[in-house]
Amino acid sequence: MAATTKRPQWQRNLYALWVGNFITGAGASMSLPFLPLFISEMGQFPKWELTLYAGLAFSGTFLSQAIVSPFWGKLADKTGRKPMLMRAALGMTVTATLTGFSPNVWILISLRVIQGAFSGYINNAYALIASEVPNEKSGQTMGTLTTGNVSGQLIGPIIGGYIAGIFGYRIPFFMFGGLMFIASITTYFFVKENFTPIDNPKYAKQSAFVGIKRVRVVWAMIISSMLIQAATTSINPIISLFVKELMHNRGNIAMASGVIAALPGIATLLAAPRLGALGDHIGPRKVLVAGLIFCAAMFVPMFFVTSVVALGVFRFLVGISDAALLPITQTVMTLATPQESISRIFSYNQSAQAIGSVVGPMLASGVAGVLDYRYVFLMTTGLVLINLVIVEWAYKADYKTIKESN
Prior knowledge:
Blueprint (H helix, E strand, L loop, with lengths): L1 H5 L2 H23 L3 H6 L6 H33 L1 H19 L5 H14 L2 H10 L7 H30 L3 H20 L10 H5 L9 H19 L5 H8 L6 H30 L1 H16 L8 H16 L2 H11 L5 H29 L4 H31 L1
Helix pairs in contact: 2-7, 2-8, 2-9, 4-5, 4-6, 4-17, 5-6, 5-7, 5-9, 7-8, 7-17, 8-13, 8-16, 11-16, 11-17, 11-18, 12-13, 13-14, 13-15, 14-15, 14-16, 14-18, 17-18
GO molecular function: transmembrane transporter activity
Protein name: Major facilitator superfamily protein
Subcellular location: Cell membrane
């Protein structure tokens, strides 16, 4: 007990927020991989219409999130990050539960849009920890916090697939709502924030990017977050449908889809803290670039897979690259951003991720509807390569600027 009281507050918050991230990741992933199958039970839709509705259901949440995130970020800099965590947890408690009662696809899509406006627990957890963690521990800490969400995403689809296969696709949404209520209680009682609002009229009007020395790099990280999210979420609307095709419509498709959805999480869970610590030692740029190259190399073979096992192997390997991407972009922004602007910068990053979560699934739905599910992986490879070019350009331009100023 004495050892616990000696831990710094940021470390105790890290443990509590890890639990909150785990619950959020588990709850969301319990239902999302089976959303297309849930929609398919609401009517007799042709393939193009089913993929369109699935894309809208995925993207609607993130579209509203992208619109409102800067508002929540500005409010967080005035009121603190803990109130934003509570708002997100309680908002998702209500909307996820109601989604389970959806009578038709349009009500479902509408509730998903409303959910997006009140979500953002994980990004606010990053912002709170980023405002407290010592710089020399930022990479490892962000990697550790990421494992909470990823661990939840690992377990959620497997449990959700088992439950959905037996009791139907509505039950995972009710479980999601219940889990977010537990996250609300955990956050309320165990997260402590010593927040002092910045009472400065000039600050309220000035750009969040004032005081950031490496502006190009921070912008590149925000754009990178968007492209990473677009790449990783592009498969979501079609994963269960692609698995169904590979299995020739035989066996427990929901369970297999859950396992395939969870596999990247196993790799990310194992690799994220190690790659975060590696970034602290050799610099985040090298880890990020290597992760992008490896990610592109793993998406290409998915175009050629003919079995669920082969798809699972490459999905697992993509999880290793995921561990080198989003946590590293969060670390770069943490190191480059002044404390008084960190919530706003992270809210812009959240908006960028949300836009990626809109663009990725919608592009995938269009590609899958016009061509085939397999072509989604080629599209994703293109997004990763664009991301690599942007990151390299930003670092080289930033280096040149610093060299000239000296």
